[in-house]
Each structure stands twice: as C-alpha cells, then as structure tokens.
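Quick illustration for those who missed Monday's session on complexes.
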Amino acid sequence: MVAAVDWPGLPAQLRSEPLRDALWLSLTTSTAAMLVCLLLGLPLAWLLARVDFAGRGALRALVTVPLVLPPVVAGVALRTAFGRTGVLGAPLEELTGFSFPFTVWGVVLAHVFVSLPFVVIAVEGALRSANPEYDAAAATLGASRWTGFRRVTVPLALPGILAGMVLGWARSLGEFGATITFNGNYPGRTQTMPTLIYVTRQADQDAALALSLVMLVVSVAILVMLRDRWLVTP
Amino acid sequence: MVAAVDWPGLPAQLRSEPLRDALWLSLTTSTAAMLVCLLLGLPLAWLLARVDFAGRGALRALVTVPLVLPPVVAGVALRTAFGRTGVLGAPLEELTGFSFPFTVWGVVLAHVFVSLPFVVIAVEGALRSANPEYDAAAATLGASRWTGFRRVTVPLALPGILAGMVLGWARSLGEFGATITFNGNYPGRTQTMPTLIYVTRQADQDAALALSLVMLVVSVAILVMLRDRWLVTP
Amino acid sequence: STGTGAGDADTLTVLAAASLTDVYAELATEFEAEHPGVDVELSFGSSTELAEQAADGAPGDVLATADPISMRVATDADATATEPVVFGTNSMVLVVPAGNPAGIAGLDDLAGSTWVRCADEVPCGRVALALVEQNGLSSEPASLEQDVRSALEKVTSGEADAGLVYATDAASAGDAVEVVPVPGAGRAATSYLLAVLDGAQAPGLAQDWVDLVLSEAGRTVLTDAGFGAP
Amino acid sequence: MSFDVRLTVPGRLEAGLTAADGDVVAVIGPNGAGKSTLVRALAGLVQADGHARLDGVNLLRVPARDRHVGLVFQDQMLFPHLTARDNVAFGPRARGVPRAEADAAAVAWLDRLGVAELAGRRPRQLSGGQAQRVAIARALAADPRLLLLDEPMAGLDVGVATSLRLELSAHLAEFTGVTLLVTHDAIDALTIASHVLVVDEGRVAQFGTPLEVSQQPATDHVARLVGLNVLRRGDLLRAFSPTAVTVDVQEPHGSARNRWPGRVAAVSPHGGTLRLVVRTTDGPELIADVTPAAATELGLTPGRAVWLSVKESSVRSYAAAPA
Amino acid sequence: MSFDVRLTVPGRLEAGLTAADGDVVAVIGPNGAGKSTLVRALAGLVQADGHARLDGVNLLRVPARDRHVGLVFQDQMLFPHLTARDNVAFGPRARGVPRAEADAAAVAWLDRLGVAELAGRRPRQLSGGQAQRVAIARALAADPRLLLLDEPMAGLDVGVATSLRLELSAHLAEFTGVTLLVTHDAIDALTIASHVLVVDEGRVAQFGTPLEVSQQPATDHVARLVGLNVLRRGDLLRAFSPTAVTVDVQEPHGSARNRWPGRVAAVSPHGGTLRLVVRTTDGPELIADVTPAAATELGLTPGRAVWLSVKESSVRSYAAAPA
Ligand SMILES: Nc1ncnc2c1ncn2[C@@H]1O[C@H](COP(=O)(O)OP(=O)(O)OP(=O)(O)O)[C@@H](O)[C@H]1O
Ligand SMILES: Nc1ncnc2c1ncn2[C@@H]1O[C@H](COP(=O)(O)OP(=O)(O)OP(=O)(O)O)[C@@H](O)[C@H]1O
Ligand code: MOO
Ligand SMILES: [Mg+2]
Ligand SMILES: [Mg+2]
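Prediction with magnesium ion bound:
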C-alpha cells in the first residue's frame, strides 16, 4: 500500500484544497462527536453500571442498536428520525428553520450516532471493573452523587474512559456509510476524509491511496501524541 | 424506519434463501472473528497494559491503525497484504494453494482486521483499571505468568473484556466496506448481511429496510441474551 | 438452446454493476430455465470495485460495468477474455419527489433549492456534469453523491427537492418520483459493457450469457427497465 | 442530643444501643460478630431495617451522603488516585468548603496525626500505619455528627497508638456528637469509652459502662479481653483474675475447691509478671499470672503439665446476661 | 539451611540479617520504618539491590513466582473473585497439585485457622478478622521455604489471636524454613521469635535475641514495645521499668536523682496495676505503673500535675547501638 503511493505527486496533493478541507472537517467533527459522546455516554454508562432501575435491560439494548446496524442503514435510520421529513427533523425544521442533513451538524450527529455505543460500552466495562466501595466511601464523606462521580468514579475508571474516547474518536474518523447516507458529500461542508477517499478512488486509485496514507499518518500521530500525554497514567 | 417496512411481505422474505445464508454467514463469521480477536487481542492487550518493553509505543500505534482507516481503505490494505498478489498472500498461495480473498476465511480476516483494535483497546483499558497488586500476589504464590493471567488477571478484568468482545462482535457484524472490497459479494460465500442489504437496496429500498430490521432484531436479541447470561456479573 | 461448453462448471458467476440488479436478476431466471442444472450466481457491486476485483483474480465468468472507464481497468489488467461489447445505454433525467413539493419545472428552478447529483469522480457524476455544463447551470448542488442510488434515495426520501439520476432509476422508483423534462437529457448518456473474463470457470456458459443479454429477449428486459439501445 | 438505635441486618446482626451527647461507645466482640456490620449499617453502606435516631431523625431513612458520619473503614478505603491531603480534604470540599481552606484544614489534621510530611503522597506510597492515620484524619476532618471508627488502632506502632489514643481521647472529649469505636483492644474499650457494647454472633451480649463490663463480663470473649477468667455454671457466670490463680506442678492438697489439670500452651511477659495460657484437660482455656521467679522454679514452659486452682473467695459470681 | 540478607531499597530501606534453619525473626519498628518494604523486597514485589541468599541461592535474582515464599500481605490482597477455599488452594494448584487434593488441603488449612465453615465465601463476604485468617491460611498452604508474615495478628480478636499464636508457634516449631514475622505486638516478638530485628527509619537499629532486645532496647520504640522507659544520655542508653517509677503530687525530697515534672496523659489498667502515661514538662513521655489504691489516693486522673522519680539503682545503662 505504501509502495503504491505516487510519492512525487504527494506534496502537490497535500496542498490541495479538498484534502485540507476534508482532513480538517474529519478531525473537527470527530473530536466534536467524541466530546458529545462523552457528555452523553459517561452518565449513560454510569447509569448502566451503577444504578439498578427497571428499564436497564431495555436501555442497554437500545444503546447497542447503532452498533449492529450496517453503516448505511444507520444513515437511513438517522434520516427517518432527523431528516427534513423525519419524526424529529420535521418539527425541528418547522420550529427553528434548522435541519441537520447536508450540514456540518449532520456530520457530527451521524458520528455521534455510530460512536456513542462504543463509548458507552467501553466506559461501562471500565466502571464495572472499578471498586464501587470507593463510591460508598465518598458518599459517607458527604459527597453528592455528582461529586462522587466526578472526583472518585471517573478518575478511578480513567484508563477505561480514555480507551472509550479513543474508540469513539477513531470510529467517527473512519465512519463513512452513515455520514454519506445522511449528509451526502459536499466539499468543505460534509465531505470528510473517508468520503473524499471513496470518491477519489472511483477515478484514481493511487491518489486515493495517497489520501489514505495522509489520513493514517495524521490520525495515528494524534493518537500517539494523546497517549503519551494522557493515556499512560503513571 | 419501522413504519416503512413491508410487513405483509416480511414472512416470505424471512424464508428467502439469500437472507438465511447471509444472516448465518454474518453471525458465524462475526463470532469466529471475535474468537480470533480474543485469542490475539487478550495477550496483546496484556502486553500493552502490563509489560514494559521497548517497542510498546510502536506496537500500540500499529494496533490502532485499522481503527482509523476508512473501511474501504482497510479492504485495499488487506488486499495489498493478503490478496493473491499481496505481500503475504502470494507466498501463502504458492506454498499452500490457499488464498483468503473471496472466501469465508477472507470475510473472517476482514472482520478480525477491523475489530481487533476495538478489542485490544477496550481490554487494555480494563486491564489498566484492575489492580496489578493481585497479579503480584499470584506470583508470590508460585503462579506462572500464564496461570496468573488466566486465574487472576482475566477474571478480575472480565467486565471490560466482555465489553471488548461485544464491541468486536458488533463491529464485525456491521462491517461492510472492508469485507466487500476484499472479498466481493458472493451469495452464500461472502455475502454478509450488510452486503445483502446493500445489494437489495439497489433494487428495493423497502426490502432493504426489512432486512435491516431482521438483522437488528436478531443481533440485539443475541446481545441481550449474552448480557443476561454472562455480562451481568453478580 | 445454444451449446454448453464441455467441462464447464454448473455455476455461472456474473459480476455486475449494482444498477443492473433488477434486470440481471430477471435474465438469470430466464438463463437458468434455458440451462437446466445451471445456477447463476450474481455478484453486484460498484463498477470500479468489481473491475478491480476481477483484475485481482476474483472468481467470475462475466463482468458487466456501467461505464467504459471501469471496464478499462479490467482490460488493462488482461482480465478479460473477449472484447467488451456495449449492451445498453442509460441517460440522465431530473427527478423530483412525488407531488413536486418545491415546484421544480426545469433546471433553472434548481437555483436556491436543495438538489443532488453524483460526484464528478463516479460514472454517473461524469454524465451529470456533462448535462449540467451543456445547460450552463451554475447553481451548486447540496451534495455530490457517491452513487446514483444514493442520489435517488435523497429524492425519494424527501431530503432533496430534486436530483439528477439515470432513467432506469427513475423507472424503478415508480410513483415515488416524477420526471421533469430536461433539454438534451438524451445526449448525456453512458454505455454499459459486458465481457467474458479470462479466469472463467465456465467460458461456454459465459458466452451464452453474453448472447442472452444481446438477444431480442434480453433487449426487451433492458428496455422495460429504462435502458436505451446500444 | 440523643442517639437511639435498634436495627437488624437480616442474617448478620440484630443490635440496639442508646447514647447521649459526647458518649463514646466501644464496640467489642469476636471476629465476625457483626461489629463492622453495625458500623456500616449506621453509615448507610449496608441495608438495615429498624431505626437509628440521631436527634429524632432516623438515619436509616437518610441517604448515606446526608448522614454526616465520619467513618474509618476497617480496610481504610483511601482514594488511591488522591494524595493524602486530597483524601482528607475530600470531606470538607464535598460539603462546600473552599479549596484553599479545605486544604489547610486537611494539612492541620494530618499534622495532628503526625503525618503532615506525607501530605503529598498517594496511598500506595504510604506504609500501613501511615495510611491508617490518614484514614483517621479523613474521618475526623469531615466534621461529622456521628463518628464511626472501625479498628482505628490496628496496625499502628505502640508509640503512635499511645499518642493517637491521647489525641483521640482529647478530640472525643471535645466532640459533642456520638462516637462508636470498634476495637479488639481492652485499653481502648476501657479507657476511652463511656459505654461498652459487646456484640457476639450478631447479637448484643452486653451493654454497660466499662466498669460493669470489665467486672462482670457476660461472655468469654470479654473476659479474655479484660484479662479475666470466666466460667459459666448454670445461669451464673463466675469470674476470677489471673493473679488469683495458683499454679502447681502436682495436684494441690489445699482447700481450693476449683482445680483443673492442664498443659501450658503459651508464656508471655505481662507487666512485671508472666502470663500463662493453660489448656485445661477437659475444660476451657484459662490464664494465670505468675512471677518470673516462680516460673523459673517450676519450669513453666509450653507443654508443661500443671494444675490450676483458685480459692472460692476470689471468684465473683453474677447472673449471666439473658442470651 | 541458612539465610543471609543484605539489601537496599533506594530511599526506603537498607537492612541485613542472618538466620538459620527454623529461625523465626520478628521484625519490629515504628510505622513507616521499612518493615513491609523488607518483606516485600524478599517476596519480589519491590525492586531491591544486594542479596538475600537462601541455601546459597540469591533470591533477589529469582523471579517472584519461583521464590517459594509464603506471604501474608498487610492488606491481605485476597483474590476478590475466588472463594476462601479457592484462595487458599491457589498456591498448591499453581505449583501443580491436582484440584481435588489442593481443595482438600485448603479446607484442612481453613479448619486449622477456625474458618472452615466460611470456605465457600468470597472475601467481600468475610469480616476483617475472618479475611485475615484466610490470608494466613493461603500463605501457609503454599508450602513455602520462606514465610513472610506482615502483621498477621492485626484485626484478630483476643481469643483468635491467642489460639492463632499457639497454632502459629506449633506450626513454626515444625517449620524448617525461615520465618519473618512483622508485628507491633511485644508478645509476638518476644514469645514466638528466636531473633528480633528492629528497623527504624529504613535502617536496622538492633538485631538480637528477644532477651537481648527486651533488656537493652536500642530505640525508644522497642523500649515502649517491651514496656520499658528508655532515655539517652550521650552514647549511653538508660532503661528502667515502669514499676520502678515513683509518682508524687509534690516535688519529692528523697534521694532519687532522676526526677521529672509532668502531667498525666492517660491511665489504663495493666495486669493488676494501673499504667500511667505522663508527659514530662521538658522531656520525653514516660510510663509508670501504680497500684489502684495509690491512684485513687493521689487522684491520678488525666491532666493531673505529677512528679516522677526513679532511683539510680533501678536504672540499667548500656551502650547505644551505633546509629
Ligand atoms: N457481604 C456479606 N455477605 C454475607 N455475609 C457477610 C458479608 N459481610 C460480612 N458477612 C458476615 O457477617 C458477619 C459479621 O461480619 P462483620 O464484618 O460485621 O464482623 P466484625 O465483627 O466486624 O468482625 P472482625 O472483628 O473480624 O472485623 C461475619 O460472619 C461475616 O462473615
Ligand atoms: N511506593 C512507595 N513509594 C515511595 N515511598 C514509599 C512507597 N511505599 C512505602 N513508602 C515509604 O517507605 C517507608 C517504609 O514503608 P513500609 O511500608 O516498609 O513501612 P512499615 O515499616 O511496614 O510501616 P507500618 O508499620 O506502618 O506498616 C515509609 O516511610 C513509606 O511512606
Ligand atoms: O463500517 Mo463502514 O463499513 O463505516 O462504512
Ligand atoms: Mg470488622
Ligand atoms: Mg507495613
């Protein structure tokens, strides 16, 4: 794969606007999606791991759904819900004039949809591995659920949470089917790296490979950087 | 999405041979891939979490690669490596006459390729959350690394490992791009559910949705069953 | 019927562009009726993908692509045993969702609306681009779709107000879309090619398949689905 | 303030006690008696039925976080990811004290417990006794209304234990809340406490002042703890001090009606005397204190066959607590 | 068999000791002295330089799993996912004993420690003392050549502690390997051990027989542990028993040249006497034993100002161990 790349042509490609746009869009939307996943996923995972309530099995099954949907079907599901004529999308557009498809927000939404289960399941696993007695200790010291969660549960489960974040981010970055089905493909707006690579490949194999390589290098570099900073807890 | 399904036609579809073949293929290859991922991923995760060796950073980066590859590119990467003219595929075929692409084994290989990082990262996170002092206790009792790993490390990190297995299995089940690129789309041999859904969608959108729903129900049912059996540790 | 080559396997494997799903399925039934004991295995995918797989030695007897460029990938790799033949064409049309909610009456109305077409790099995109340029259309689409099916779906689902798709897609969508006439649409067309593959396990059956597609019966099936004559 | 407890943890504990402002209740009993269970039920970590009324409020109905108890866990449970200071500051901060103030208070507490210089360390970098002191600081710093100390002295060296005992007595003397102190140490039970609760097999065997309990121990365990021999005869308990026991190597001919043959099981120094543990042939284990001179003379080493006797006048008889 | 240790854990410990077949070495010292560090270094859980030769083999060069030590952790570290029986059977099974046999051995060990009926429980379902006993059983069941016990008696009730002490002495008497027993309890150190290693601030302060150590304690800590007062004068240590201390409420006029003003900090029963801890005004804390009668007469309650004195003839002087 590395050998197949058109090395002399690479610098020119790197300067090409579609590549820069797509790379930037991919990185920002994946990061945004990861943050949203964390915001939604952490409490959800905590609920699933620590609180014993009636609908727990059902909620867990629900969270798992996007995991087993083929990406394209995920896109269709998203459209049914958030499309312009969708169950939630239609009222939303009526009220605010805003609609998700064909926008950056749509890309983030698609990423969140496919990545959230990864985050939730990985984090739930981590929370279950951590000793719940510490939560109890925090409670006897007067910590509210939120304080205990923030200052004890999360730090103790941190390695697992970070793993979940990496998984979510990477899943978003590589995601293709749901994004293109829900948002289509427009350079600078909804054209992420995988989409760019896909369409480029239809015309020019080698160019697509070069693009893949760029994406690979950038994302692995970011992951390695993150790992060295945060993920290797002392 | 549920509303859009052609309910009266469903029973007939359920009995159709392509559906049964594809569903069976998807379930078996995903399960096989998950087992392979476990076999490869557990030691790998353990190595990354517990052993301090020189190439650790590099190995971790390498494991992460398939995670950030768009699925189609993953398929191309696989072809470059294991294709009939691939770096490893060509010698393999010469020696044994066996080649991966366009076979069930190729499907499993593609699934393993895309799912392995999920398993490794989730399991590494779980191992890091578990207290390494217990490993030390096992060692003082004369347990070999392997015994300690099997009887102490793994049981203690079980929730995280199970989460990793679920993630890997589900990722394989939904995987489409790498599989179709590397293995094509041969009914009964390499046509998994996502591929069948893709093809069906070319002709009949509603039939595709019905297939998706079948897949969804079956896989969520399996996950829920597994959870109730194993994943909710007392 | 035509003679079956001795030593041929009893399965014919056809690699075909996804847009041929319906017609090839119909032709396969006919083929199996004519060749008792023979199974037709259809493997659909994107033209480029299939051509590449064929070049990589994917099992298959015939390859049908939706454009000449993809077919060239296979011929360049010496993966074909016979000269590719054109067996049909497909032209671009403008479709709107049933009821035409955005009131699109022609290409000029696309400005300001949410419309889609295929990306420049994919076969259907090249055709669409030609049509757009012919008509001097300057309005930008909301999305450049990965394949024509996705473009059609954006319209049938109501996400897009209009889309440029093949005539065959418009036909298969039935009542879900309405076709808006576009000047010069017929000229913006692509041709479908068919060739027997070098690695065919059943070269005789493969040739029979080519013959069937090119036959009068084949012609009828294609025309019914909206394909044009070669 | 008043504290009135009657609670049940099904299958493990059924206990009641009352205490007033400033009381220190020592909880003693054998391993597995239910001491930790009682403490944890009061803290809200174990589900319990019944009531535990503190100033009229039934704690058992209040979530753990709002009970305002200070708990030293038997196994410490220091937060592994926080420094000693942050562990101690956790309680105050959870109750809304500003960071700087909470930190200062934490350091002050660590200082009182003699581990201020370890403020920046994580629990895993502390020795067992150091960690124990941080755990005590953490419980006290939370400014609780109910202080629950589960074996706070375990693992502390004599010097630290003594000064901690002093520190704790001083603190408890000022403390207006109620304290429960689980201990296996007679000194803690008899010197710091105002009341002693004896738990045995999940039930209260005795509840009274240290004097009552030490003079009329209701169970064998308490007798051992306070260093008395206790025998049961029908409904009566008969207690006598190890100093009242005479040790002979032959069967004694004296007037003592209470005599037992046995073997020396252990010898250990005890104050200025030597304490023998004797396994009687068909009775209980008894303890006897002898002078070092006598021990040498009689050759009282483990394994030696001996006769123990005690004069009836040295035996105090009292009614056994109803079981 | 011989055991010869000289090891360094940088920044935490520098220690040496020698022992022979069947020796029991008590390791004592204040909290944070380095006792657990020594034990963990020998077990291979802490990196150490130097050597620890057991029968000529340097353990420090052998991986932990092959050292054949039996270790009771200060914080137990029972495997939380295994039952008590499986915890105890873990060592034998790791060394290749068949399952049924290992299980039987495990139950036998649990029985010797009085917790056989808890064999099927998980650690979290055990009380602190019960868990401690399972931990001891686990260490002994592994059939070690070197037995490392880090505060095995902590958290045990008096009854259990006594019988465990007996059980342990009996076991250790038969045991041909070397035992290191970390303890804060003088009784363990002086009755079970054949040698006592005193650790202080990461160094060996004293190493000798229990008699040597108890009669000439080299550190304040040991003095307290064995119940002596120890003062340093130049290079000399001066030890005297608490029974030799006279307590007055006014400045004594007698011949005693050693006298200190101070205040009573604590009073506790000790054998037949009462033990006072007195904080001297400008000196160390001293202990004095008085009769209950005297205590009542003089009103010796905490806070009382007193004078302590000791006759020179009651003071034993000896050279301090080189620091
Ligand atoms: N989670 C549990 N499930 C079932 N039984 C338990 C559980 N925890 C403790 N027990 C049992 O309850 C009884 C009381 O335990 P508890 O911890 O209160 O004893 P304790 O008095 O604190 O003993 P120790 O002095 O050993 O700490 C014991 O027999 C113990 O085995
Ligand atoms: N991981 C660590 N990193 C740095 N210092 C440590 C670490 N573990 C222990 N220490 C320090 O080393 C010293 C010796 O600790 P050690 O645990 O050996 O003490 P100990 O004698 O067992 O005390 P205790 O009686 O309290 O158990 C202590 O001052 C402790 O704070
Ligand atoms: O999983 Mo995909 O195969 O993102 O399109
Ligand atoms: Mg307890
Ligand atoms: Mg220690």
